[in-house]
Amino acid sequence: MVTLTRERADASPGGTGGGRAVPRTLLAAAGLVLASSAGGVALAPGYATPLPVQVVLPACALLAVLVTLAARARLRPSLVVPAGLPLPLAAVVVCAVLLPGQGTGVVDSTVEALVHSGARILTSAAPTPLSVDTLTAPLLATWLAGVGSVLLWHGRRPALAILPGLLWLVGAVVLNGPVAPPGFPSIGLVAVAAVLLMSAVSAERPPPGADGPTAADLVVEDGTPEGAAPGGRAGRFLTTVLVTVLAAAVTVFGGPVLLADWEARPRDPREALTPPLAPEAALNPLGHLSEWAAAPDVPLLTVRSEEPVELRWVALADFTGTTWLPEGGYRAAGEVLPAPVPAPPHAVRGSAEVAVGEELPGGWVPVVGAPRTIDLPSVGHDARSGVVVLREGPVAGTEYTVTGDVGDWRPAELETAHVPAGPEFDRYRELPPGAPPVLNDVVAAVSGQGPPYERARLIAEYLRESHHFSAESPGGHGYAHVARVLAPPGEQGGGGTSEQFASAFALLARAAGLPSRVVVGFGPGDGAEDGAHTVRTGDAVAWGEVYFEGFGWVPFSVTPGEEGEEAPEETSAGTAGDEDGPEAESQGAQGGGAQGSQERPPEREDAWTRPALFAGTALLAAAVAVPAARLARRWLRLRTGSPERRVLGAWWELRDTLRQCGAPLPAGRTVGETLAAVDGLLPAGAGIGLDRLGRAVNWIGFAENARVSREAAADAAAAVRRYSSGLRRTRGRARRALWWFDPRPLFWRAR
Fold first, then answer.
1. Can you give the pLDDT at residue 249?
2. pLDDT digit string (tens) for 508-532?
3. In Å, how far from its chain's centre is CA 50?
4. Where are any strands of DSSP class E within 294-445?
5. CA–CA gap between residue 391 and residue 333 (Å, rounded)
6. Residues 48-69: tens digit of each pLDDT
7. CA 85, 87, 91, 93 torsion: positive or negative?
8. What's residue 313's pLDDT?
9. How far is residue 301's CA from residue 366's CA, in Å, rounded to a whole number?
């Protein structure tokens, strides 16, 4: 049954009056939840265990929107925020129980998290370890984004309702910095949220006039069952779905293609804060090497792995003139450690189970290559060097499993590599006052002015070929000790351990203008049948590293072997010999696989090809989607629902056709005036028969309990199709060709 009723709609976007208030509210609520969840979805990949974050933060957004919508219906806006605060605070308490932080006890952990959560995120290594300390700030930000979105929606600011979620998304992306993947799914959520909110706004009817009912106050109620899909609503629903899917698909799948070759990287906000854990400057691991070389049989580690692995221990970057000091500070980290930047070239993933003996000093943890995971609680990590340290107590007596990326640096790829010139690498070129003249003499005679890699290779070759290994050499690696070992070019130098030769290489490289440092590690040790390898003091070794753009820290083997051969322990650092020698392979701290200069032209070509391919695909998809959506809506209007609904659908289709042709149709015209205005748009004698459509529309609108036969509905639909076809033929050739590709009718409201 079709009846004519009056309806007074709430003027606010969040109003609840009217027959369509519930669908409009559902659209708005869904859009607000998606917008508030976008920041949490973007932030989750920055955590060591992202799944709990991907569940908790969207759930928080859902709860915030629903609770605020319910509270806004009963409370003043000033009371909505404090009324809902107990819920996120209770969630923080639950997190303190399940994911304890640095505080002691539930109350102390909750207070610590509320006060210091933001600082704990910025002073921890990325990916961020999951605890109440690092989850509280995102949880509160998500809650406030949901509350703010609802308040703006109810405050007649529907266009701004998406702003809190968008600001939270921007904050999450900035907080992640370069460690998390691009947030295209989150941007897709915001795009979908915008479509839903626009759909909710478009579903709102204007308030009725003060002088009585107007056309906007008259609503035709269909007596068909609730599950039936009237043509108009079904068409709007289909349009919303198509636009939503298209917006999400273009954002989520098109964004990565367009930005695939964009080399820009966001800054890491963690660099703004000093790590809370300082390096162990009082203990210099390099000084142990000469002592260990004199007593090489003391067990230090037991390593179990499928293949023999070499371990990194400590990187030393700051030279005082008398000693090398550990690099940087350490940030709190979880079991998953940050990926090295740049990634090691030709890397393979290595894994080892390590049992540390009682003789290994300090808190530094031996790791495989660029470490990626380690199952030790409370560790610190330095992203620049890849060094891992226990935050509490020495490493002696611990057992753990560690995985890491082991790179393979190939001389042929390094020949054209450059060293960075930025000020952040000046500290790796710095030589304190008092440098012995032999450094400049060797550099001038050995390395010359060749490419950076050639200079580093020649320095390493000079040390290996002009000197000899001596386990009895006294310890020390300062200027005086290096000057004692080094010999002028053409002469035979003195003997020493890897302590002196690694220090000499780094100092010579710095004198040659190359950013360099010293690294201490361990060789694979003695193997056994059960896969356990015993690493002894004689397996400890130091080597030098030079930083190359795009490749990271490249290791160089510098210690001469007995009788002119490389010492067995030096294989852990690879070799930088001539091109016919073994390739430089090691587990560099931040080695990188990057792009050599010879590969740049193909990359530029890809940078143009991929966006062009995506643009063509997107245009093709749009060309198919728009006609499909319009034809589907026309079919729903003219073929589905009750006869009365199909008559109204034919009338809406006629008005869209006239509007698309540019015919002036003021909103206040009656049905008869509209038909009279369009009667002259077609040639005389066309005989379309729109007068029957006009009588049917008036009958439905103003007759009580009006009914229309199926034949009359079919005649009305046929008349509209004939009229639309005839009117299209009067347009120009271009307008006719592009008729069904015009997307504007999809967004016009049916009155």
1. 64
2. 999 999 999 999 999 988 877 677 8
3. 12
4. 299-304, 311-319, 324-326, 331-333, 348-356, 364-365, 367-368, 370-374, 379-382, 387-390, 399-408
5. 10
6. 788 889 999 999 999 999 999 8
7. positive
8. 92
9. 9
pLDDT of residue 581: 37
Assign 640 to helix, strand or coil: coil
Of 526 and 228, which is predicted with more confidence? 526
Helix (H, G, I), strand (E, B), or coil: what is residue 234? Answer: helix
Q: For residues 267 and 128, give the distance between their C-alpha atoms in angstroms, rounded to a whole number.
A: 16
Alpha helices, DSSP H, located in 255-330: 255-258, 288-294
Residue among 329, 302, 443, 309 at smallest CA distance from 385:
329
Residues 149 and 169: beta-carbon distance below 8 Å: no
Residues 720 and 631 sit within 8 Å (Cβ to Cβ):
no
User: For the chain, percent helix, then strand, then coil, each to nearest 5?
Assistant: 50, 15, 35
Return the sign of the alpha-carbon dihedral for residues 233, 236, 242, 247. negative
Residue 256's pLDDT is 57
Torsion of CA 197, 202, 203, 204, to 10 degrees: 100
Residue 130: which of 373, 335, 402 has the closest Cα? 335
Torsion angle defined by CA atoms of residues 300, 304, 308 and 314, in that order, rounded to the nearest 10 degrees: -40
Structure confidence by residue, pLDDT tens digits, 283-330: 678 888 888 988 889 999 999 988 889 999 999 988 988 889 887 678
Structure tokens at 352: 């080892």
Q: State the distance between the two ends of the chain, measured CA to CA, in whole angstroms.
A: 20
Instruction: Give yes or no for a contact between 143 and 235, defined as CB atoms under 8 angstroms apart.
Output: no
Query: What is the pTM (predicted TM-score) of this model?
Result: 0.59
- Residue 492's H or E segment, with its range, is none
Reduced 3-state DSSP string for 727-744: HHHCCCHHHHHCHHHCCH
Residue found by looking up tokens 């753990």 in the block: 400
Q: Is 280 helix (H, G, I), strand (E, B) or coil?
A: coil
Are 446 and 509 in contact, with CB atoms under 8 Å apart? no
How many whole angstroms separate alpha carbon 667 and alpha carbon 655? 11
Return the amino acid letter for 692. Answer: R
Question: Taking phi first (over 0 means left), then psi (-120 to 50 degrees means alpha), and beta for anything else, what does residue 172 get?
Answer: alpha
Closest CA to 663 of 618, 714, 728, 619: 728
Dist. CA 313–CA 294, nearest whole Å: 20
Q: How far apart are CA 442 and CA 462, in angstroms?
A: 9
